[in-house]
Amino acid sequence: MLAIALLVFREVIEAALIVSIVAAATRGVPRRAAALLSGIGFGVLGALLVALGAGRIAALFSGVGQEVFNAGVLLAAVLMIAWHVVWMASHGRELAARMQGVGQAVRAGASPLAVLVVVVALAVLREGSEVVLFLYGMLAGGAGHLSAGLALGLAAGMTIGLLLYFGLLRIPLRHFFGATNALLILLAAGLTADAMVFLVQANLLPALGEPLWDTGALLSERSLPGQALHVLVGYTARPTPIQLLAWLATITLLSVGMRFAGRAARGMRPEAARRAMTD
Fold first, then answer.
1. What b/e string do you get for 28-66 counting C-beta neighbours within 10 Å, with b at 16 or more?
2. Has this prediction a pTM greater than 0.70?
């Protein structure tokens, strides 16, 4: 039971941490709860469908279909997170004002809702499909205490995610969106690096050399701190050059995009204020 709980916990905590960061980052967005629940529901449904079609997925692309599928899910999540980070750079001040009761409602709230659903669904889809496949294999092998291990792993992973979420909410509002956007950028960078691993395994991209260093003796990725850092900032004990390049490129591109979006939003505010006065 403990082995099942530990393996389920490792998968659940990855999805829980991602969902918690995205949920905190969309604080104040109208109908956020409905979008979160929809994303979780679509992700669970997708995980079940992926588990049912695992054999066909693996047979695609000359036997590397699972790697290509995983990389596609990760890169799609990165695109959705990038969209959200840029959107928040131009609307974060309005959201903060709205939460403080001194601003008007954000009229563009529909865009992050769609992004929120997709990011949450992809996170749950990727980790949920692995959980379903793992449990199916354990069940076929005659493992006992399956339900108890599943419940324990789910509870532990969700607890860690909730602790992170409520911890983020304690950040002062003036620093909140900057902090959560920084976490989202690091999260996207880690997902991009993970996608590179799958594409290298599928022989679609070169690793560009041997691992640059090995910090596994200091902090193993299999440990709880290592697993959490892997999700939150993309920590890898033995990163290859292509992983590091992808990680740095993602951080650079999203940081630059967020800065340009913020400047554009600040330039448009005087004109928007004048229109509001004339209306």
1. bbeebeebbebbbebbbebbeebbeebeebeeeeeebbb
2. no
Contact 268, 99 (CB under 8 A): no
What is the spatial distance between Cα 136 and Cα 145, in angstroms, rounded to a whole number? 13
Do the beta carbons of residue 244 and residue 212 sit within 8 Å? Answer: yes
Neighbour count for residue 276 (Cβ, 10 Å): 9
Average pLDDT, the chain: 76
Q: Which helix (H) or strand (E) holds 2?
A: helix 2-25
Start-to-end C-alpha separation, the chain: 64
pLDDT attached to residue 208: 93
Rg for the chain, CA atoms, rounded: 20
The torsion angles phi and psi of 219, rounded to 5 degrees, stand at -150, 105
Asked if residues 54 and 130 have their Cβ atoms less than 8 Å apart, the reply is no
Q: pLDDT band for position 52 (50/70/90)?
A: confident
Token couple for 214:
């090995």
Integer Cα distance of 191 and 42 in angstroms: 20
* The pLDDT of residue 13 is above 90: no
Does the pLDDT at position 124 exceed 60?
Answer: yes
